[in-house]
Amino acid sequence: YFWTLMRVLLLLIGIGLGSVYANSSYAQTKIDIDVNDVVLEDLFKEIQTKTEYIFFYKDDVLDRSKRISLKLRNVKLDDILKRAFRNTDLSFKIDDRQVVIVKKLPEPKITEEPKLVLQSDITGTVTDADGAPLPGANIVVKGTTNGTQTDFDGNYTISAAADATLIFTYIGFAAQEVAINGRTAINVSMIEDSSKLSEVVVLGYATQTRGDVTGSVASVDIDEAVKTPVVNAAEVLQGRVTGVQVITSGDPGTAPKINVRGFGTTNNTNPLYIIDGVQTDDPNVLNNINPTDIEQMNVLKDGAASIYGARASNGVVIITTKGGGYNMEKAEVSIDLYTGFSKVGNPIDLLNVQQHADMIWQSRINDGITPSHPQYGDGASPTIPSSIVGYTRVQSYDPIVFFPAGQVNAAVQPGGTDWVDEITQTAPISNASISIANGNENGKYFMSASYLSREGVVNHTGFKRGGTKLNSEFKVGEKLRIGEHVNFSFSNTSPGDSEAIEMAYRISPLVPVRDDDGFFAGSAAPGIGNPANPVAQLYRTRNDYDKRYTGIGDIYLNYEIIDGLSFKSTLAGGFEIFDSRRFVSLDPENGEPISTNRLTERDQTRYNWSWTNILNYNKKFGEHSINAIAGIEALEEGQKSKEVARSGFLFEDPNFYLLSNGSGTPNVPTTVDNTDVTFDRKNTLYSLFGSVNYSYLSRYFLTGTLRRDQSSRFLGDNQTGVFPAVSAGWLISDEDFWPSDGIVNRLKLKASWGSLGNQTLPANNPTINISSLSEQFANYSFDGTSITTGALLTQVGNADLKWETSQTTNFGVELSLFESSLNISAEYFNIKTKDLITRDFSLISSTAIDAEAPLVNLGDVENKGIDLSIGYGNTTRGGFSYDLALNLSHYKNKVTRLINDSPVPGRGDLRNGSVTRTEVGDEISFFYGRKITGLDSNGRFMYEDIDGDGESLVDGDDRTKIGSPHPDFTYGINANLSYKGFDMQLFFTGSQGNDVYNYSKVFTDFGLFFNSNRSARVLNAWTPSNTNTNVPALTASYPLEEASSNSYFVEDGSYLRLKNMQIGYTLPSDITDKIGMGSLRIYLQGTNIFTITDYEGFDPEVIPIDADGVGQNLNLGIDRRVYPQPKIYTLGINLKL
Amino acid sequence: CNDDFSETPPIGALSDEALANEDGVSLLLTGAYSSLNAVSSTSFGNGWGRAADNWWMDVLSDDAHKGSTNDDQADLKEIEIMNWSSANGYFYARWGELFTLVNRSNAVIALTSSLEDPGSFTDQIAQARFLRGLANFQLQVMFGNVPYISEENYALSEFNQPNSGPIWDQIEADFQFAIDNLPGSRDASDVGRPTSWTAKAFLGKTHLHQSDWTNALSLLNDVINNGPYSLLSDFVENFRLAGENGTESVFQIQFTTDSGQSYNGNVVGALNFPNPGPFGSCCGFYQPTQDLLNAFQTDTDGLPLLDTFNQTDVTSDWDILSFVPDTDPAQPTDFTPFAGNLDPRADYTIGRRGIDYNGYGEHIGEAWIRAKFANGDISGPYLPKKNVYWADDAGTQQATGSWGQQLSGVNYNVMRYADVLLMAAEAAVETGDLATGLNYVNQVRNRAKNSNYMQATDGSGDAANYVIEPYTAFSDADFARKAVRFERRVELGMEGHRLFDLRRWGVSQTVLTEYYTNEARTIPGFGALINPYDSKHDLFPIPLGAIDLSAGSLNQNTGY
After folding, report:
1. In CATH terms, is domain A119-190 a member of 1.10.238.20?
2. Count of A–B CB contacts within 8 Å?
3. Do B324 and B234 reside in the same domain of the chain?
4. Which one, A80, A151, A752, A978, has the greatest CB density within 10 A?
C-alpha cells in the first residue's frame, strides 16, 4: 500500500542523498565563528580565512543592508550558513570547496506535459516531531514527478492543483500524504520511522542512533506488530524479534512467557520492562497498556543492557509511548477500531458415545472380564441408553438427599455430547482506541482512550480493559523541559475454571449438558465416573472476576545546564489494586456434591516508585563524539495481600456476594495451592551508574558502562553488586578502502561484553529464617474442642545468598547489500550465568521440615546461540512493493555446575511425580522418564533397560532423558506486500525441534478414570489383531508406570503457524479528502489461521506451569490444562483526521 | 539514600529472635502437634496418602479395601493389588508427612537448646521428643531403613542422612526421655498432650515390635497396673464424641471441626465416607473386607473361629442391587443378613446391609456403595464405621470442605488402652505367662460382651445374633498366641494397626496370600487383579522422589 511504497521509495532516495553527503568531506570540517554586526560578505571572508572554502555569488545577490551577529563554536559550514541565511531569500550549495550563493528559488519543475488543472503555490514548513526544521525533505505531488525539497529552515514552496495530494518524505521518517484541499499553507511534522539506521533508539536512560549501536538491541516494528489484535503488548515480540522466545497463552489476560536468549536461570526469566520511566519485571503490567499507544519497543539482549545492572540479566524491554510533537499545525486524531470473533483453533478429537462404549467393552475383554456396564448393559456388544441409567441429582441439602432413582432423567444426546465443543464458543472481540496529538512551540501532548473486550473461546472467560493515557511536555524558558506520562487502566478478567478443560477431556459423552428438567446434568449416576460437568463449572464462574485498577506514570524535568550538558530527574511510580472474587456454587448434579457454597475474596495492592537523577553530557569535538551519562536511582516495590474465604451463603446471586453474608467461620489462609495469598512485602534497590559512548568519525564506536546496585534482598556485602560492560563497533564500510559501488554497501562489526545481575526472587527476605503463625498448618487442639495458635518455619533463610550474575559476550555483524535492499544482521552470544538462584529442594528434601527451601546460588548455566535476521524489500516498476523479513533464534542451554552435583527434579504438582529434571552437563528441565521400546504380547509397554541390570524395568534407575523442551530454533517470517491502495501482511511464526510433554494423555489415553472419555488415539489401541501401533491395549486398570513419566507422553512440539494475515485497503486520498479525513484504511485480519504441527494436544505452544514463580523453569514444556490458542478474525479500520 | 533504605524487614513474620523465648517454644510445639493431623505445606506425592490415621495401611492388610471404583485413586489401587512402585505417590506422601513431624519436633528441641535456660523447658522438650519418637516409630515400621534426622541435623540443615538401617535405638531414647520428663497427668485443657504413661506405653510398643518381650511386658504391665487408664464401658464410645479423650485414650490425634474450613478436622481422611450414602457426598473409600467381617464369627461358646473363620462367609450382598429395577416406587430387593453368631464388635467396625449405619438408618447395600461388581471393582459391599461420626455427634464432629468433602472431627486413637492390654497379653504369652495373657485378653472380650449391642432399626432388639464370651483357658502357648493375635484383629480392626502386626509377627506372606484367595471368593474383581505377595512387600519402597531429592544419601530397599 502507499505507506509501504513510499517508504521503500524514500529509502532509495535517502541512500542517494546519503552518498552525496558522504562524498563532501569538507562538509565535516568544523570551525568557530565570532562575528558581530557584520554584513554577510564579511562573514564569508571570515570563513575563508579559517577554511579552504571559496564563496561564489553574483553581486546583486547579497543584501548589503542585512547585518548579522554570530557566535558559534565547533560547527559545520552548512550550520553556519543556515543560521546566517535565516530570514533571507538566500540559498547555497556546497560543492567540494566551492560555496555557491544564490537567490532562493523553487526547484525547477520537471513537468512533462502541461496540466489543465489550475495550479497554485503551496508553502509551508517541514519539521520533525520536536519541531526542528528538516532541510532537504522531499515533497512530491502525488501521481506526478513534480517535486521539490525543503530549504535549510525546512521551508518549501511547490506548485500543485488545489485538489492534489502532497507526499512528504525524509530519510529516517515515515512518509506522509497530505491532501491540499485548496490550502496554500501546509506545515508538516514528520514522524520518525523505526527500523532505519538514523532512528533514535531509546535504550533506557539514554538514546542512541541505531546505526551507532554496538550492543545487541532488537526492535519491534510496532506499527506492523499492533495490527495483530494483541491484549498484552509483550505478545508482539513473538516471532518479530530475534533472540526472544515468546510463548503466549490463548487465555485472554494471561501474560505471555518471555525468554531472552535461552534460560539463564531456573529462577525468574521475565525480562525487565521499562515503560517510559517505570521499571517492572511483572509482565502483567503490560496488560494495562494500550498497544497502539506504543511508539517504540526495543529489547536489550546483551551487555549493552547492563546499564540496568542488577535487573538486566534476562534482557530489558524498553517501551516508549507516543508523545505528540512541537509546532504541529493541527491536532492529529487517530481512531482505530476492530471487531471480530475468535474460535478454537485446533480442537482435539475425543470418542463419541458409541466409540466410548466400544472402548469400555474392549477394555473388559482385554482384562478377561465379561463386558457389562451400568450404562451400556451386559450384551455381547454395548447398547447406548436413550437416557442415563440411574440418573439422579440432589433433591435437598442438609443433609444431602438425592432424588430417588427414576424421578429425574437425562437424555443421552445423539452421538453423545461433544464436550470440547460445549465448553467453547465463538467469542466476540472488539477494540476501540482514539488518540489525539498536538503541540505548539512551548508544549506538546498525546492523549488516548481505549477499550478492549476479548471474550475467551472457553465459555465465560474473557478480558476487558479500558484505559486512558496522557503524555505531555512543556518548555519552561529556553533550557527547561518538564513532562509526564500517565496511564490509567481498569481491567476485568473472567478467569473461568482452569479445571474445566481437563474435565472436558474426562467427562463421559453419555452425559448431556442439561437433564430433561433443564438443570445441569452430571455425574450422579453409576458408570459415569466423577468428572464435573465442565459447562456447569464454567457457568458457575461467570460472576467470578479478577479486577485490576492500575496507574503508572512519571514526571520528569530536563534542564540544559550548558550546551551539551543536561540534567534529568524522573519520578516514576505505579500502583495496582487487585480485587478478585471466586464463588463456589452448589453443584446438585455432581455425584460428590458440594454441601456448602463458599465465597473467596482476595485484595491485593502493589506499588512501586523510583527516583532517577541523571547528568547527560553530549558533545562533539571535531570528529570525536562523546555521549556520557551518570546517574543515581532509588527504587522501591511493595505488595500487600489478603484472602478471606467464607462459606454458607443463603443465595447464589452475585448481588448477595459479600463476605458478611456468609454463615461459616471466615478463614484467612496464608497460602492456597502453594501460592501465598496473605502477605505484606517490600524490597528496595539503590543504584549508581554511568556510561560513556564514544565515536570517532562515526566509524569507530566504543561504549563503557558501570553500575553499582544495592538490593534489600541480600545481606551485608552481598547487598552490593557491580556490573561493568564494554562494547565496540566498527563501520568497515565507511573506511576509504571500502568500495563505494560494491554489492555490500554497509558492513558493521560489533562486539560486547557485560556482566549483568538478577535479583528478582520469589522472596523478599531470602536471607533469614521466617516462621509464621498459621491457622492452616500450625494450629492444634489440646483440649479437644478449642484451637490453639501455633507457628511453623515457613522459609529457611540463606544468609550467604548473593547476586546471580550473567556474563554476556556478543559478536555481531550488520550487512546491507544491493543498495540496502537486503539487510542482514547476525549475532553470536555466549551467556554464562554464575550462581544462579533457585530453591534448593535437595537441601530441604523430603526428609526435612515442610518449609520453603532456601534460595541458594545453585550453580552455573551457559547459553550459547545465534540470532539472525534477514530483510529484503523492493518495489517493482509496476508499483508492487514487498518487504520480506526472516528472523531466527537459536540457543543451546547447558547446566555447567550444581552445588551438590545432585540432579534437580521438577516440581510440577503432577500426578505420578515430576517429569522433568535438571542436571549438570545437560539442559535445564529436560524430560526425564522411561523409554518405551514397544508393546509386549499383551499390548503393554516395554521399557528400555537403561541401567542394564536386566531386572525390573520400572525402577528408578531405568529412567533417562526422553526429550527436550528447548527448540533447535524459533523463527518468524514477515511479508508485507502492497500494490496501489492494497496492502497485505503475512506473519508466520514457529518453533522447531522442541518436545512437549502431553500430560493430558494421563486422562485421554490411560483412562486414569475408567469411565471417562478418551482421545480418538485409543481407536488405534493395541489388540491381538492390531499390533502395529504405539497405543497400549485398553484396560480398566493401567499399571501406574504406564501413566508415569515415559516417552509415550513426549511429542514433537515443532510447529509453523500463520500467526497473522491481514489484507487492507487505503482509500484514495481524493475520496478521503472529500469527506474531510486524513486517511482511512480498512482491513480484514486473521490470527492463528493455521498451524502445521504433529503435536496432538490442543496446542504446541505450551506456557510453563506457573508455581508462583517458584522453579517454574524447572517445569518447561508440560501441556497441562493449556488454554487453546484461538483463531481470531477481525474487521478493522484505521482512521486519521 | 541511607543504609536504612536497603533494609526491608519482613512484615507479619516471626524471626528466629522473636521465637527465642517461652512463647516461641510454645508456638513451635503447637506447630509440631499440628502436623500430627497430616496437613502440612509439603507437596510430596499424592496428598491423600498423608493419612494421619494410617487408614490405607489397612488396605494393604486383610482388613480393608481401597474402596470406591478401581480407577478412583489408581495409585492406591496399584498398592492394594500389590503392584508396588517406588514412584507411588501414597508412599511418598506419608513419608514426607512423617518427616515433617520429625522436624517440627526437632525445631522445638533445637530452639530450647539454644535458649539460656533449657532446663525450664523440660516438659516441652519431652513432648517434642515424644512426637519425634512417634513419627520415627511409624517411619520405622513402614519403611524399615529410614534416615534419622536429629535436632543437630535440623539446626545445620543437614537433612540428607543415610538410611543405613533401623533406628530403634533413637526411637527408644526419645520415648525414654519422655517417660523421664513428662508429667504423670494432664489437666483437661491439655488432654491432647502425652503423659509419662503415654510414653511408657509407646516404649513398650517399641520393644514389642522388636520382639523384646520382657522389656515390653514390664513397661506395659506398669502402665496397666499403675497407670491412669481403663477400658470404656461401651466399646463404641472409643469412636464417638462421648469417649474422646476418655479413660481408654492413651494417645489420640485431636481432630476438631469448626464451622469454617476446619483445618483441624481430619482433612486427609475425607475420602473415607460412603458415596452414595447417607451424607450424599464424598467418596466411598476404605471399605472393610469380607475377610475381616468373617473374623467376627463366633462359635456357640462365643469364641472366634480362629482357624476356620474363613471357611464360611458372613452373608455378602455383593452383586445384589438395593432395589428391584424399574419398580415404582422402588422396591428393596430380597436380602437376609447373616443369621449366625457374631462378635458384637462386628457391627461397630463394619457397615453391612440390613444393619444400622452409625445412626443414619439401615445400610441399604449396593445403592450406598460406590464400587460396582460389574466393573470388576475390588472393593466389596462394606462400609467403614469407626472413622465416621455418628448421626447424633454430627453437629459437633461434621464439617465439609470447599468441594463437599468431609472434615471429620472424630479423633483417631493412635493407641488406646485395649491395645495396651493386648500388647501386654502378647508379651506375656511370648514370655510364657499364659495366665496374664488370658486375663488381659478376657478383659477386652468382657468389655465387648458387656457393651451395648447394635440394635435393629425396627426396634426388635439386637441387630444380629451377637454371641461373645471370654476364653476359659489358653490350652498352650500356640493357642494363646493365636488367640491374642486374633483378638487384636477384631478389637482393633480398621484402626490402622493390622499391617504392622502382620509384619511384626512375620506372617504377612502367609496370612495375606490366604486372604487373597479367600477374598476373591466373594469379590472376583479382586482376585483378577491381585498379585502375589513377595518378601519385598515386608517394607515399603523408599519413595523414588525422596531418593531423587536426597543428593545420593538414600538407598532403595531390597527388591525395588
Report:
1. no
2. 369
3. yes
4. A752
